[in-house]
Amino acid sequence: MIEVHRVSKVYSVGPVKVPALRGVSFRIAKGEFVVLTGASGAGKTTLLRLLYRDDLPTEGDIEVLGHDLVPMRRSQVAALRRSIGVVFQDAKLLPVRTVYENVAFVLRVLGTPRREITERVFDALRVVGMSSRAQAYPAQLSQGEAQRAALARAIVRRPPLLLADEPTGNLDESMAAEIIEALKDIGSGGTTIVLATHQARLAAALKRRTMTLAAGHVVKDEG
Amino acid sequence: MVGFLVGEALRDLRRAGRVAASAIVLITLSLAALGGFWLVSSNLDRAVARWRDRVRIVVYLRREPSSPDVAALVERVRTTPGVAAVTFVGKADALRGLKQVLGKDAGVVDQLPANPLPASLEVTPAAAAATPEGARELVARLAALPEADEVAGSVDWVEQLSHWQRLLTTIGLGVGAVLGLAAILTVTTATTLVLHARRHETEIMRLVGASEITIRLPLLLQGMMQGLVGAVLALGTLVLTYSLVAPRLEPLVNLTLGLSQLVFFTPVGVTALLGAGTLLGGLGGWLARAGREP
Lengths: 223, 294
What we know:
The complex is a heterodimer of chains A (about 220) and B (about 290).
Chain A: E1 2-13, E2 16-28, E3 33-37, H1 44-51, E4 59-64, E5 67-68, H2 74-81, E6 84-87, H3 99-109, H4 114-127, H5 143-155, E7 161-165, H6 173-188, E8 192-197, H7 200-206, E9 209-214, E10 217-222
Parallel strand pairs in A: 3-8, 3-9, 6-7, 7-8
Antiparallel strand pairs in A: 1-2, 1-4, 4-5, 9-10
Chain B: H1 2-54, E1 57-61, H2 67-78, E2 83-89, H3 91-102, H4 107-110, E3 120-125, H5 132-143, E4 148-152, H6 156-197, H7 199-207, H8 212-257, H9 267-287
Antiparallel strand pairs in B: 1-3, 1-4, 2-3
């Protein structure tokens, strides 16, 4: 499903070279739920960005869902992303569209037939417990609800891989627990999930495979 | 999918607000200017073509030839280089023509002791001689005829008219091009603002794997919509101006240029104007660049 081989990423800030990842290698099998943890700046977000081909590694190879990401052309990137759901710390909901429209937007962009859209949107909203808030605008949602709406948007295409970058970072414990439960439900359906979080307690409570990053290295991979 | 793309384009158009309105106004001005000059130019072109066909050189004869000599003279002039046709006008014919022109004052002519009008040959120049230079050469050749007393006529003023027509076309294209360029830049600015306003949508679209064409097409469409609206407004302005001005101007144009009526665009011209507007807007929309990915 995911194979990362000796990947390094160095950012250039003017003349200064800032290494974000140093020789990272790992494999993630289909259907796994992997928690990526580590302090802020450890390289979690960089690693996730490389996995959905938002950036390129400075060195090394990455294979995701059978695609070799490094030599990929733009058109192939679009095809890859249709198989990946991504959730961020900020929900990135479109403020002038309702929850329903935000989730449906993804399907409309990809040319899904109109008759399928309603059914699939409500399926996704049901999974994250947001069916009753379908007509609400983002400004009317709590942070937890906004994040669950973002999660619905990420899974509405039923992608085989879901990447979640600090989805609970802005939430209190009870809201974070709701998101984690939703992720577990999604994972139980066979979706491969990579969850990045700096919250060590949350990572420990999940009792899933946990990879710990520190200064761009994978320092621990257990579970 | 088409519904989605058009819907997004309309949403983008609303977002661009006043800048989009400015772009539409500029497109309207540029196409109205271009169309206005085009209309004047095409009507002048008609006048030039008509007058080129009507150009006559008149050879006034020293004396009226006898009937048998007329045919020989006409044949000799007809074979002169640069001559397309020749008509003999006898003294009596000339007098009849003058009476017709004088209309109710024709009685004045009857007071004359004798017919003062000379016999003449009306010469139609061949196409090659219907230029100022060709006409001058033909006049010189006809003046050399021993029967010729005086030769009148040239195509200078027709060429002058043609010159004005070309000048108007050039000015029209120049003004249209400058305003058109300004319109493209304004549409580009409007689209850049739209790009900024829709950056979240674009980010989401890229994230979920939308094709580049799906991302860019609404921008192109909203530019084309601005162009089309501008073109329709320009066309409306021209129709209104034509319907107000043409009836008032036609008597004068008929008297001076010999055109009984001023013509408006043909369906092809209307389509070209609308197409030009759509193209201008589309170009502006396409030129606005979205951020690039690795």
